[in-house]
Automatic annotation (TrEMBL), chain A:
<protein>
    <submittedName>
        <fullName>ABC transporter permease</fullName>
    </submittedName>
</protein>
<dbReference type="GO" id="GO:0055085">
    <property type="term" value="P:transmembrane transport"/>
</dbReference>
<dbReference type="Pfam" id="PF00528">
    <property type="entry name" value="BPD_transp_1"/>
</dbReference>
<keyword id="KW-0472">Membrane</keyword>
<keyword id="KW-0812">Transmembrane</keyword>
<dbReference type="Pfam" id="PF19300">
    <property type="entry name" value="BPD_transp_1_N"/>
</dbReference>
<feature type="transmembrane region" description="Helical">
    <location>
        <begin position="138"/>
        <end position="163"/>
    </location>
</feature>
<comment type="similarity">
    <text>Belongs to the binding-protein-dependent transport system permease family.</text>
</comment>
<dbReference type="InterPro" id="IPR000515">
    <property type="entry name" value="MetI-like"/>
</dbReference>
Automatic annotation (TrEMBL), chain B:
<dbReference type="GO" id="GO:0043190">
    <property type="term" value="C:ATP-binding cassette (ABC) transporter complex"/>
</dbReference>
<dbReference type="InterPro" id="IPR039424">
    <property type="entry name" value="SBP_5"/>
</dbReference>
<dbReference type="GO" id="GO:1904680">
    <property type="term" value="F:peptide transmembrane transporter activity"/>
</dbReference>
<dbReference type="Pfam" id="PF00496">
    <property type="entry name" value="SBP_bac_5"/>
</dbReference>
<dbReference type="InterPro" id="IPR030678">
    <property type="entry name" value="Peptide/Ni-bd"/>
</dbReference>
<comment type="similarity">
    <text>Belongs to the bacterial solute-binding protein 5 family.</text>
</comment>
<dbReference type="GO" id="GO:0030288">
    <property type="term" value="C:outer membrane-bounded periplasmic space"/>
</dbReference>
<feature type="domain" description="Solute-binding protein family 5">
    <location>
        <begin position="70"/>
        <end position="429"/>
    </location>
</feature>
<dbReference type="GO" id="GO:0015833">
    <property type="term" value="P:peptide transport"/>
</dbReference>
Length: 325, 517
């Protein structure tokens, strides 16, 4: 009951925020230099005044700004995100076509980084004065500090070019005609390199954060009490230390989850993964305003959704947190 | 200077001649790359490079062109011109059908040219303004009557520019919103099969193709890989067999061409013959003085740019007319690299060191490096240059608004000065908003007159004399800087045979290609 009211009030706020974001994005994009009609004409390599006129008129770019804004906002209200200027396809179709690929990639990376990060961090905290603990932390530092695109390229050189174990790019083997399980395995194989690359950075952060907050929690009085009660170190670590150390990690996980739609541009580009990140980058290059606004909308919506989810998870992890406090 | 790569190309050309003697094998699918992903595949509606490259296998024109730019039959079997040069009659092949089984007839030609292209296609429109009427004399004969003789008429029927589209699908519809645009229907050797956006475009063999035994391949997969390094890897690890022009960064080309079983050709570029230029703003600032522009030409070391940045591929042009253009005037004085002469010219005009802004072309590493090289050359003679980098959108806008001093670009030549060259210099082509017309703002009534007369002069000897005159004026005025005729190589495995068989290269090359495996 309490949850229902909470979610309802959060959803209402979310709609207001989304509306403001739509308007803000609309003006932000208008400020970028470069007119979509000119870019489209430019791409064609040949143009005349008639061609430019046709394009501008077709996209409604000859209308005053407030008319364009009104058209856009009233469209979005009915889930009509308009046409992509460049691809001549409804924006919603393009996004829905690409969204699953991105969610699969970033979702896998999310789970991978969270699970491995927490496990590695806990191990490092438990072995704080041992060499094995230092090795984990050293690795985490390396992955934290290394640029993602470089890791991606090196992974391709090692695993695809030299060892030939894993495919270098794409989401499935073109022309292989796999179906069912074979297709799933094929996609899985293609997923390994990009998902791992994308996961490494966040995994490093989770490792460092888990270790730090576990060491801090271990100093607390209730841990001393637990120890005095004679609980086994393993149980203390899991039930008392880790659980109390989880809150900052949930915060960070919420942030990472919010980045899911747009956060994989680089990985998607290097590995030719057909996701939203690439679509967004291309849309920006082409000044494909409608498409770009559509992607912004979906990213913003997802960030808001994950904010709400994070709040709920907080309450599950720590019942002391209540509305308003 | 002959670089190793140039020698490798000569060797590849020899191998290609041998290949013709072999017996072609049937079957196999070629994996290749398209970069960037095309916006759509309906030629005639979209004319950008990636669309031409993929859809050139689906759609056809009336003619194709050899690597010497001689017309060859395609949908038209033969053609003739009346004595006054005004009426062109095309005899069409009789056994051609569209991919949906409907027959291709003269009505389709009339519809494509007179209705579809007149409405949608700026390149075709430039030719069609010289056309008075188009008539179907019978099912397989079409007559074009021109307002006056138009020199480049016969070279303007290339599939990408003057595509034949099916009348039965488009007539009476809103062309751009036609459902059929998602499943293009042409007459070409390959049919559209599937487009998985962001991943691959798949074409399959047209079993009912009108030419006996063609095509040999079962299909073509056009992979979409956005990252340059990943595209090189795709070739290295054997996923793709053909790298069309522009698919890998220039610095990767020498490395890839040294791989086993790898051939490379510079042919297949002749029709477009991309010409890199330096826009120079003729309206204001130091660049408005022709002595400054001449100084820029003397200051630039174009041989260096070709040998180092472009791997020795391409040709340093003499002047405004590229080597593949007709009617080149060979008597012009060349602009050799001569910094001393450049400094003299700058002194003579009293150049005070005013800063000029240079816009590189945002098309990748090579262009960035090239801008740096030119900046260095210009600084050597005392020209104060500031580079202003933009993205593609910004570059388009700045040029369209004439907000620049110097800027890189490249333009297609389309096989005839009246199609690809005059547009850069004609004063009625000065229109704000486009980065591809007379952007530099050059106005010279004599040049206008000569170009306009030459386009419609008849026969060719008269055209030649006029074009020779105009080249002399341009060589003196230097409205733009002539940088390099780009040599875009196609890299492929040597067991892909007969890949480049025309002046548009891979754009229709897969028609004749076969795999020796």
């Amino acid at each position: 009951m309490l949850y229902a009211r909470l979610i309802a009030s959060r959803l209402f706020k979310a709609v207001v925020v989304l509306f403001l974001i739509i308007i803000f994005n609309f003006f932000l994009i208008q400020m970028a230099p470069g007119d979509p009609a000119a870019i489209l004409a430019g791409e064609a390599g040949a143009t005349d005044a008639e061609f430019l006129r046709q394009l501008t008129e077709r996209f409604g770019l000859d209308q005053p700004l407030h008319v364009q804004l009104w058209r856009y906002v009233s469209g979005v209200a009915t889930l009509d995100f308009g046409f992509s200027y460049r691809q001549q396809v409804p924006v919603l179709d393009l996004i829905l076509e690409r969204l699953p690929a991105t969610l699969l990639l970033t979702g896998t990376a999310f789970v991978l980084s969270l699970v491995l990060g927490i496990v590695a961090g806990s191990l490092a905290a438990a072995r704080v004065k041992k060499p094995s603990g230092s090795v984990i932390m050293a690795l985490a530092l390396v992955f934290y500090a290394t640029p993602l695109f470089w890791v991606a390229l090196m992974a391709v050189v090692l695993f695809s070019v030299y060892l030939e174990w894993l495919p270098a790019y794409g989401m499935y083997t073109v022309g292989a005609g796999h179906v069912g399980l074979a297709m799933a395995l094929d996609v899985g194989k293609h997923l390994i390199l990009p998902a791992t690359t994308l996961a490494l950075f966040f995994m490093a952060i989770y490792t460092r954060m888990t270790r730090a907050s576990m060491l801090e929690a271990a100093q607390q009085d209730f841990v001393k009490t637990a120890r005095a009660k004679g609980l086994s170190p393993r149980v203390i670590q899991r039930r008392h230390v880790l659980r109390n150390a989880l809150l900052p990690i949930i915060t960070l996980a919420g942030l990472q989850a919010g980045q899911m739609v747009g956060g994989a541009i680089l990985t998607e580009t290097v590995f030719a993964w057909p996701g939203i990140g690439r679509l967004m980058y291309e849309a920006l290059q082409q000044r494909d305003y409608n498409l770009l606004l559509g992607i912004f909308f979906f990213s913003a919506a997802l960030v808001i959704v994950f904010n709400i989810v994070t709040d709920l998870v907080y309450r599950l992890a720590d019942p002391r947190i209540k509305e308003g406090s | 200077m002959k670089t190793p790569l140039a020698i490798a190309i000569t060797a590849a050309a020899l191998t290609a001649t041998y290949a013709l003697a072999e017996e072609p094998k049937e079957g196999g699918v070629i994996d290749t790359i398209i970069q960037p992903e095309p916006p759509g595949l309906v030629l005639g509606m979209i004319q950008n490079a990636p669309t031409r490259t993929v859809a050139g296998n689906i759609y056809e024109g009336l003619l194709r062109y050899s690597t010497d730019l001689e017309p060859m039959p395609q949908l038209a079997e033969s053609w003739e011109v009346s004595d006054d040069g005004r009426t062109w009659t095309f005899h069409l092949r009789e056994n051609v059908s569209w991919h949906d089984g409907e027959p291709f007839t003269a009505e389709d030609v009339v519809f494509s040219a007179d209705v579809f292209h007149r409405e949608l296609n700026p390149s075709a429109r430039a030719v069609l303004q010289h056309v008075e009427s188009i008539e179907a004399l019978d099912d397989y004969t079409v007559a074009f009557t021109l307002k006056e003789p138009f020199g480049p008429f016969l070279i303007s029927f290339e599939a990408g520019t003057f595509t034949m589209v099916p009348k039965h699908i488009y007539e009476g519809t809103e062309f751009r919103d036609n459902e059929a645009n998602n499943h293009p229907i042409g007459t070409g050797p390959f049919k559209f099969e599937n487009w998985d956006r962001g991943t691959v475009i798949q074409l399959v063999k047209n079993e009912d193709y009108y030419e006996e035994d063609l095509p040999y391949l079962d299909g073509i997969n056009w992979h979409i890989i956005p990252d340059g390094a990943s595209r090189a890897v795709a070739y290295e690890n054997g996923t793709v067999d053909v790298l069309p022009y522009g698919t890998v960064e220039n610095f990767d080309i020498p490395r890839l061409t040294e791989m086993d079983n790898t051939c490379v050709t510079e042919h297949g570029n002749e029709y477009f013959s991309p010409f890199a230029m330096l826009w120079m703003n003729n309206r204001e600032g130091p660049t408005a003085d022709k002595r400054f522009r001449q100084a820029v030409m003397y200051a630039m070391d174009r041989e260096f740019a070709r040998n180092v940045l472009w791997n020795g591929l391409g040709k340093v042009p003499l002047g405004a007319f590229g080597s593949n253009a007709k009617f080149q005037n060979d008597d012009l004085a060349p602009f050799d690299h001569d910094p001393e002469r450049a400094r003299e010219l700058l002194d003579e005009m009293g150049y005070d060191g005013e800063e000029v802004r240079l816009l590189p072309l945002p098309y990748g590493e090579t262009w960035t490096r090239w801008a740096e090289a030119v900046q260095q050359n210009l600084k050597e003679v005392g020209i104060n240059v500031r580079t202003e980098a933009t993205d593609v959108g910004g570059w388009n806008q700045r040029l369209g608004d004439w907000d620049y001093d110097l800027a890189f670009t490249y333009l297609y030549q389309y096989g005839d000065p009246a199609l690809g060259i005059s547009r850069t210099y004609l004063s009625n082509n000065i229109q704000k908003g486009s980065p591809w017309n007379n952007v530099e703002g050059y106005e010279n009534p004599k040049v206008d007159e000569l170009f306009n007369q030459a386009a419609t002069a008849h026969p060719d000897e008269k055209r030649e004399a006029l074009y020779h005159d105009v080249q002399e004026i341009l060589q003196e005025d230097v409205p733009v800087g002539w940088l390099l005729e780009l040599g875009f190589p196609t890299i492929y495995r040597c067991d892909v045979k007969n890949l480049v068989t025309s002046g548009v290269g891979v754009n229709d090359g897969f028609k004749d290609a076969w795999l020796d495996r």
